[in-house]
Design brief:
Chain B: InterPro entries: Fumarylacetoacetase-like_C (IPR011234), Fumarylacetoacetase_C_sf (IPR036663), HPA_isomer/decarb_N (IPR012686). Chain B: One of its GO terms (molecular function) is metal ion binding. The complex is a heterodimer of chains A (254) and B (245). Chain A has 254 residues and is mainly beta. Chain A has 2 domains: 39 residues, Roll (SH3 type barrels), CATH 2.30.30; 214 residues, Fumarylacetoacetase-like, C-terminal domain (Fumarylacetoacetate hydrolase, domain 2, Alpha-Beta Complex). The longest helix of chain A is centred in the C-terminal third of the chain and has 11 residues. Chain A is globular, with a radius of gyration of 17 Å. The mean pLDDT of chain A is 95. In chain A, strands 1, 2, 3, 4, 5, 6, 7, 8, 11, 12, 14 and 17 form a 12-stranded mixed sheet that branches. In chain A, strands 9-19-18-15-16 form a 5-stranded mixed sheet. In chain A, strands 10-13 form a two-stranded antiparallel sheet. Chain B has a single domain, classed as Fumarylacetoacetase-like, C-terminal domain (Fumarylacetoacetate hydrolase, domain 2). The radius of gyration of chain B is 17 Å and the shape is globular. Classes of the chains: A mainly beta (254), B mainly beta (245). The interface between A and B is medium-sized, with 32 and 36 residues.
């Protein structure tokens, strides 16, 4: 099953998505394309892995870390599929990061690596935008780089864990305006999903809806207003997002 | 007015009281507010003075240009009277006395001048942490452990607090005064923090900002069987028992 949340007629609905990519309400109606907007499909803590693909570590001139390098985002940054992300005026480098997102399905505390996959509820696609101009060496990557309003598209939906045979062999791809820019495979994760769940659940209690953004492979590029950015995780979903200018974003707030 | 939250028949309900003595504190309270909790690190003048000679060196290279923020995840939030649990073999654990600023109106890109219009009121926060050995990478392991963020007992309406940038904060362990500070030691004022955070993060009703914690020296260490209590002038007194896991 694929689970999503949408807004239609000013109502928030929990829906499912069928094999034809049609959105089905709980009463069984099909929502016509254009009659709804996509919301983030999950709510919870947001963990993000930095430098969790060896090739991306090399790209950033870092050696892969000895233990997971985890940072947190706040829910203000989340937006759904087919929404807008704004690029601040006067910045030089804003890049996407295509990531497989693990969604926790049941409460997890002190879980072993062997049992960890039992706690996965499903998967979705995340795009962890960063504004590199704002990087500072204090709690790096700092919230101003990573936890900005509109800067974390996620979705379109959560696909149940049992629908993904091997989450450690999925191709990730990012396209800007249809042109392939980033490609990698989850088989290259430095710390795999069981490791991450075990590691985090040793620190704290994980609860259903918590999200683990597992990191991004190499192939970053700058994005500009007007760009359509498509992030895709094989078998999980295709997440589309459009970059807008800061002034268009500010106008949309009023 | 004092707003507080407690468990009633398995559900958390919000209550209001005109006086502090009428707040029902027979049972532990729930965290005084419900929302995102954002902390401001390195926001105490004495703490910064104690380490600023490191700021020119690796890994920092330059002093912070903007307020340094962190997130206290929902698993950390507990209320007045609930138990702080000390993990085994993780080293010393420190209390983190701070004013808590509770958002009352959705805030996106607000100016310092108008910042307090978006505040509902104030609460007491104990931003518990393992030792702060470095500010280079996000302190998830040190700060996001279960029960590491007592919040309460209540939210006092901002009208009852004359100047949030001049409130004394006293910390007691087992009824002994161990530490005194004040919000006049904040590097960035309450107004500045709200304005800065809202410049890129929309703050929602109920969200909480931890204004700033002092240097965690041994006076703030807490251990199993202690009772830690933080008193903020005009705001309230937050007490929590401590238990070794």
């Amino acid at each position: 099953m694929k689970h999503a949340r949408v807004k239609a007629n000013d109502q928030i609905l929990d829906v499912t998505v069928n094999d034809n990519n049609e959105v089905i309400t709980q009463s069984g109606d099909v929502l016509a394309a254009g009659s709804f907007s996509w919301l983030p499909p999950c709510k919870g803590k947001m963990f993000v892995l930095a430098i969790n693909y060896a090739d991306h570590a090399a790209e950033l001139s870092f050696k892969a870390p000895d233990e997971p390098l985890v940072f947190l985002k706040n829910s203000n940054s989340l937006i759904g599929h087919e929404q807008h992300t704004y690029r601040p005026d006067n910045v030089d480098y804003m890049h996407y990061e295509c990531e497989l997102v693990v969604v926790i399905g049941k409460e997890a505390k002190n879980v072993s690596k062997e049992d960890a996959m039992d706690y996965v509820g499903g998967y979705t696609v995340g795009n962890d935008y960063a504004i590199r101009d704002y990087l500072e060496n204090y709690y790096r990557p700092n919230l101003r780089v990573k936890s900005r309003d509109t800067c974390t598209p996620i979705g379109p939906y959560i696909i149940d864990a049992d629908q993904i045979k091997d989450p450690h062999n999925l191709v990730l791809r990012t396209y800007i305006n249809g042109e392939l820019k980033q490609e990698g495979n989850t088989k290259d994760l430095v710390f795999d999903i069981p490791y991450l769940i075990s590691y985090l659940s040793d620190i704290m209690t994980l609860t259903p809806g918590d999200m683990i953004f597992t990191g991004t492979p190499e192939g970053l590029a700058d994005v500009k207003p007007g760009d359509v950015v498509t992030t895709e995780v094989e078998g999980v979903g295709v997440l589309t997002n459009t970059i807008i200018s800061e002034s268009d974003y500010l106008a949309s707030l009023n | 007015m004092y707003t507080y939250r407690l468990q009633e028949s398995g559900k958390v309900v919000t209550k209001k009281s005109d006086t502090t003595f009428a707040v029902d504190m027979a049972e532990p309270l729930a965290p005084a507010t419900h929302g995102a909790v954002i902390g401001v690190a390195l926001n105490n003048k004495d703490l910064v003075a104690s380490i600023e000679d490191q700021f020119e060196e690796k890994p920092y290279v330059t002093p912070p240009k903007t307020p340094v923020l962190h997130i206290k995840t929902d698993n950390t939030h507990i209320g007045h009277g609930q138990t702080i649990r000390i993990p085994t073999n993780k080293g010393a654990v420190y209390a983190g006395p701070s004013l808590g600023i509770v958002i009352g109106k959705k805030a996106t890109r607000v100016s310092e001048e108008h910042a307090l219009d978006f505040v509902k009121g104030y609460t007491v926060v104990n931003e518990v942490s393992l030792a702060e050995t470095s500010f280079y990478r996000p302190a998830v392991k040190a700060k996001c452990r279960d029960t590491f963020c007592p919040i309460g007992p209540w939210v006092v309406d901002k009208a009852l607090v004359t100047n949030p940038n001049s409130l004394s904060i006293n910390t007691y362990v087992n009824d002994e005064l161990v530490h005194s500070t004040s919000t006049d030691c904040l590097v960035h004022s309450v107004e500045k923090i709200i304005s800065y955070i809202s410049s890129f993060m929309t703050l929602e009703v109920g969200d909480l900002i931890i204004a700033g914690t002092p240097l965690r020296d041994e006076s703030l260490e807490i251990k199993g069987d202690d009772i830690v209590m933080i008193d903020i002038e005009a705001v309230g007194r937050l007490a929590n028992p401590v238990e070794q896991e």
